[in-house]
Amino acid sequence: MIAVSNTSGIISEYDWSTSRLTFGFPDSKAEFPNGYDRGSIAALGPLPEVVRDAARAVFALYDSFLNIRLREVDPGTRWPDLAVAASSDPAVVGLGYYPTGDKFYSGDLWVNTDAAIPDTVLTGGGSLIGRYAWQLLLHETGHALGLKHPHETLGSATTTLPRAVDGIENTVMSYRSVTGQTGLALTSETWGHVQSPMVLDIAALQKIYGADYATAASDTIYSFDSKTGAVLRDGTSMGTPGAARTFLTLWDGGGTDMFTLTGYDRAVRIDLTPGGGVDLDVAGNAYRARLGTGEYASQHIWFSLLSNNDRRGYFENAQGGSGADVIIGNAWNNVLLGGSGNDTLSGGAGNDSLFGGAGKDRMDGGANSDEYFVDSLDVVTDTGTVGYDKAQISSAAGDRISFAGWSGIERVNGNIGDDVINGATQTAKLLLFGNDGADALTGGGADDVLIGGTGNDTLRGGAGDDVLLGSTGADTFFGGSGNDIFYIDNTGDRVVDGGDGTDKAIINAAAGVALKVGGWVGVERVVGYLGDDRIDATGMTQNIVLVGGLGRDRLTGGNGNDRIFSGESNDTLLGGGGADALIGGAGHDRIDGGAGNDFYLGGSGADTFAWSDGFGRDVVKDFVDGTDKLDFSGLSGVSGLSDLSIRQSGAHAILSATGDGANSVTLADFNSAALEASDFIFV
Questions:
Q1: pTM of the full predicted structure?
Q2: Fewer beta carbons under 10 A from the terminal one: N or C of the chain?
Q3: Residues with catalytic annotation?
């Protein structure tokens, strides 16, 4: 691709020292200054109005991208810097003088209207855009501002343009219609000539005079009129070419711009890279300039290079049509919209947003953090090695994303429908967010995060240490292998299978949740949160750990050997059928081990240790006389202190119902003589 460095091949040793230039159209020899010694003046002829209008339009094009101003004056009252005149001298077709500054004719343009302008235009007033005469005016104005031919040297300007990039596609100063052709020849078809200064012309003159960032400085929309071949800027034609041939370069001075081809049905290629451009008919030659026998322009529209790497010169966004389009971003933050065909979108550098639209689209955001808007037919392969990339399901009706062929994506968001997002084939970490609807999310082989959103969702972690958050709705969880975490916020949430590894469920609702976890499989730990939680593992056969939170929690074990921990408030800990460990916390806890040989630890606070029939052989580690209570109201036949057998065994006090040798309570490191009726609850 051409670069700013190529501009040295067309910059002469001459330029204007002022940023304010005038132009005009002398009608008679009397208007010329004395001493104007060009031979063309002898053959001075009338300059048709159509040529004057064309020259005005050409000057406006140059003015639009340069930090100079071109203003028309009357040569009868003030001789212009750039005089444009007609000559019938057969030796002259077009002539533009360099701005040497030492001659009256410096910067002047001469046009042989007999040779350069077709009679049909002169008599009918038609457009010159795309004709040789238009290119001639562009070319000679380039000389008048200080550009030279790319194949020639001029004084100290000894650099020529490499033949591989020497052609009118790159510079209007070229004598080659076909880039790289051996000889010098302008062989374009009648309407196949350039319609603006081209990429190298703009870059070279901006290098000399600076860029005009006031042109299209706000957010601008560029579009295409398929009937005329004209490019539109904010809905206004930038000039209607003949024969619907499109062959020009665009400059834009700022804002966030969009080049849109919505409604256009041919396959296109849009490359927003500086020096890139638009091919309006990838599969054919519609609107394309023919440059010679069997030779056509490589594309239709070019985007200018950046001046001094100033990002204001970027074209930021692009939108395709209904064809199979290719859209390429640049180093800035681009928005690329594919349209309804099978499109290929490439973001490049920058934080890009890629919308595939309908069709089987392929998208690659490139470097940095990109966002994709996808459907089930799309494939995302993000090749960037930095940034956080995410995909958003675009359909509100619900869609399926299988990740087949995908790579480089860290997050996928569902929409408001019932979405299926299956990342089982992925090995990188994923964040899957279902959003609204009853969604089904499946993680891959890494440590994934799955968030259901609203609705009754199904979350499957897959391999890896996954985090699964159901959010609102009655959600269903499958952990898979790895040490998984389930966040629970609804009474209807359930873990069907935690899978391998050490898994835990954490209540995530501040108001408190009542959970029956006895039917859960593969969960080793359930933890409360801020509210008054009810966690009931009745019927669970595996060992489980239950942990309270900050509220007044009620924790009930199952049939395994469970560990039950109080939280920060006044909690109730209930063991099940196994040998449980019940650990109180900072509050005034009630602890009842249930059946099995259980271990009680009250912690700080005034705790109540309770038993019921068939409780087993339990140990209370930290009974505090005068603070804690021993509740035997659940024992049949025990209504007072006289119904208990109390004895000392070494450092420990042993309590049991009179005549019951199967069930006993051991108060560790406690002197039984200190017990009195006030330490007990019998009713």
A1: 0.87
A2: C
A3: 140
